[in-house]
Amino acid sequence: MDLTSLFILAGLGAFHGLNPAMGWLFAVALGLQERSRAAVLRALPPIVLGHAGSVLATLALVSAARLAAPPRIVTYGVAALVAGFGVWRLLRRHRHRRTGMRVNAWQLAGWSFLMSTAHGAGLMVVPVTLHEGDGAAALASQSLVATATHALAMLATTAVVALVVYDRLGVAVLRRAWFNLDLAWAVALIGAGAFVALS
Amino acid sequence: MALIQPDPTFYPSAREAMLAPREELAYVALLDAAGGGRPDAIATVDLSDGSIAATLDMPVPGDELHHFGWNVCSAALCPYAPHPHVERRYLVVPGLRSSRIHILDVKDDPKRPRIVKTIKPETLFARTGYSRPHTVHCGTDAIYVSALGDVNGDAPGGVFTLDHDTFEPKGRWEVDRGPQELHYDFWWHLGHDTMITSEWATPNQIEPGPSLEMLAGRRYGHRLHVWDLVKRRHLQEIDLGDEHQMALELRPSHDPTKTHGFVNTVINVEDLSAAVFTWYLEDDVWKARKTITIPAEPAPAEALPEPLRQFGAVPPLATDISLSLDDRFLLISCWGTGELRAYDVSDPFAPRQTGSVRLGGIARRAAHPAAPGRSLNGGPQMVETSRDGRRVYFTNSLYRSWDDVFYPDGVSSWMVRVDVGEDGSLSLDESFFVDFAADGRRAHQIRLQGGDSSSDSYCFP
């Protein structure tokens, strides 16, 4: 993968790391609930691993498709999937549930996996990796490198934000700083789908 | 429409909600008791001068409006199910008798809400198996509503949910209800994924009016039920003692790291006193302990309605309570004796009375300073505290068929405001007296624009 692709993957990771709904807010809440900074830090690995799992699963599925089907079909299939997911995000409201505040590491990772998948985190990474790699080994290593780059950037961002909010800003900052990027994200997914189809 | 920033009335914590701007409007449920085919209404009260800005009649008579709540609230900021860019703009208003649920939109003209949707009783019955919807709380994933009974007006009552966006009933909430049969109020400790529910009686037992036979037989509810909020399973039953009849309003601490709360019991059949219990978590077991007792007040028989004459005393009848957002002051309505009491509950096991005001009452009929010559009936009943904890509002009607037994001359309805001092002292606001006598209907629950002390729940301390 070239440097540009790695930068894009890291940038997307940082973007997800900044999003309160992707996990740092949960980590801060768990820390506040236990009155413990260590609890904030403890929550971060499961959150990032769940997110990485969602991204890796998406890339693995696309890699499998690439090994099994002609490139043209995979390209249009991925384009339709990514853009279609963007349209779905645009039209549907989302409610996530079935976890609460008292979660263990596994539940936290599972929650993060579901949040990331519903968000389409992995789908946005697919277009970056679609035209590189050939053969099972290359695709596997590419998927791992892409996921690791994305996840490390997310971990760094989410850890910094969680600690700054926990230690200094306080959660009241949410009232002003929690911008609704749902529309922008849905449009970006549709754009990414179009980019895949046209490139 | 989704917002770009979170709804400005959402606060991550109760602590921050206390800094909210002062309330300007109140929505008040009005109940028609005359029975002449007039519908109930939601009144909008302008809190700057206590004038009734508007009343919105429901489409058909017979709803019996009682409690109501918002579509969304600060729980939308909870980290595990965030949806912060929705608007607090709809009031969910159940008809306790009709089982109809009206959805009111207050956004375009907050003084004049309009009805945008009505859920038919048949829909509620078919989807949930429940009837007589009562308490409404905006949850993290849905709107939660309690119901007093099943479709025939018998037990069990329970909780059902409404979809956040469409308001359609999603179904019965409980997966496993254990031994729970009776229902009244519910609320939760979000930080501990725990729901608490309380008990009044079945609709068929309540609707004809209060029953001395039920009381003497100790058949009204006297238990709390503890539930796993995520798994929707009954965990535990707490029996407060069957002498404490009617365990009603639940006020868990607003701080999600705390694990205690307060519930009022209306009447002790042994001595007519009222009580408040503190529930708490100890060694992973939920327990409750009586922490406030309010004794009955002796009164001459001729000042008492028929069922109370034999006792020569007025029971306080603690029918509602309100907990300030800092979890510091508990307000208790004594609808029988006509007294609103304030307690400092900083130590939840050792409440200390800090204030009292008297208005109405079965025997006293205490007047308001705005109309010193006019004896008032009814007494402090539905009580609501402003977010900053400085003002308390209350109305004077309990429940149609019960009003008429304790105040046989017919409750003439009003709403008043009380100022709360730094030390928890109470004083009636002499300039604020909303008189519903001209309207003729009876005021019940009050909801303050933007939120109040029983409208929101918080995931952050």
From TrEMBL, chain A:
It comes from the Bacteria. The keyword Manganese does not apply. Keywords: Membrane, Transmembrane, Transmembrane helix. Signal peptide: none annotated. The keyword Membrane applies. The chain crosses the membrane at residues 6-32, 44-67, 73-91, 103-124, 144-166, 178-198. This is Arginine/ornithine antiporter ArcD. It comes from Streptosporangium pseudovulgare.
Automatic annotation (TrEMBL), chain B:
This is Selenium-binding protein. InterPro entries: Se-bd (IPR008826). The lineage of its organism: Bacteria, Bacillati, Actinomycetota, Actinomycetes, Streptosporangiales. Belongs to the selenium-binding protein family. It holds the Pfam family SBP56. PANTHER family: METHANETHIOL OXIDASE (PTHR23300).
